[in-house]
Specification:
259 residues; Vanadium-containing Chloroperoxidase, domain 1; two-stranded antiparallel sheet; 2 strands; mainly alpha
């Protein structure tokens, strides 16, 4: 990271220009969240129809007992733990070997903070804990006693670990971000499609189990994407951008030097 030599004169215009962050992806995720919310508020029948496709009268959501699908659900916890251990191990290795862990540290911070802020705080603590939306298996149409509750409507039909939004879909979106951040550019053309396919399979698994509505899954992806898109420029993109812009500024602005 570039640093400022004590006593140096800095052109404030160039300095703040170096810190600019483009909010394009953040705006895209905000628009996606708003569009999805409006769509499911206007057409709640889409939720009911997609869940009904996996429901059998008198038998319930029969795919919830499928051993392969149950194994798929459990696999996400193992893969997530392996990624976290790998990130932490990489940072510790560089520290022990006395190598600069700067890039690995930024990537690790992005993934750890993103996991805590997205799937952890926003999804599982705030939304699932406070909104009270009953799951498909709990509504009257599918053998339960609760009514269908639209997206973003707070209710008392569920007290804890409720349907809105999907925690596992949120973790699946995080896994896709991890593949993007951790994989070298040459690997991304095949690693990202695999990560997306796996993430979509994990998400649809919850739909098939009657654990979530389609709106829970899609809004979980967009909200998690919003959190990650907001963190990425600050923790990963900005340090590289600032370094590059400050180096350019040195040509006409005295007092800027690399650390």
């Amino acid at each position: 990271m570039s640093a400022i030599t004590p006593g140096a004169t800095i052109d404030p215009v160039r300095f703040w220009s170096a810190l600019r962050i483009r909010p394009g992806v953040v705006s895209l995720t905000v628009v996606a969240t708003g569009a999805l919310s409006l769509y499911f508020l206007l057409f709640p029948g889409v939720d009911m129809a997609t869940s009904a496709a996996f429901h059998t009268a008198g038998e319930g959501f029969v795919l919830s007992s499928d051993p392969m699908l149950r194994a798929l659900r459990k696999s996400s916890t193992i893969i997530l733990a392996l990624i976290l251990l790998g990130v932490i191990g990489r940072i510790l290795f560089r520290l022990i070997a006395r190598r600069s862990p700067g890039r690995d540290l930024r990537r690790g911070a992005f993934l750890l903070i993103g996991l805590a802020a997205g799937p952890g705080l926003l999804v599982n603590t705030v939304l699932k804990g406070l909104w009270g939306r009953p799951r498909p298996v709990h509504i009257e149409m599918f053998g339960g006693d609760a009514p269908y509750v639209p997206v973003w409507q707070i209710s008392n039909w569920c007290q804890t670990n409720c349907s809105f939004v999907s925690g596992e879909a949120s973790s699946a979106a995080w896994l896709v971000a991890a593949a993007w951040v951790l994989c070298p550019p040459a690997w991304r053309p095949w690693a990202l499609p695999l990560a997306v396919t796996y993430g979509v399979a994990l998400s649809l698994n919850r739909l098939a189990f009657g654990g979530h509505f389609l709106s829970d899954i899609l809004l979980s992806w967009s909200l998690t994407g919003l959190v990650l898109a907001a963190l990425y420029p600050v923790l990963i993109a900005a340090p590289t951008t600032v370094r590059r812009r400050l180096r350019r500024a040195r040509a006409v602005t005295p007092g800027l030097s690399p650390a």
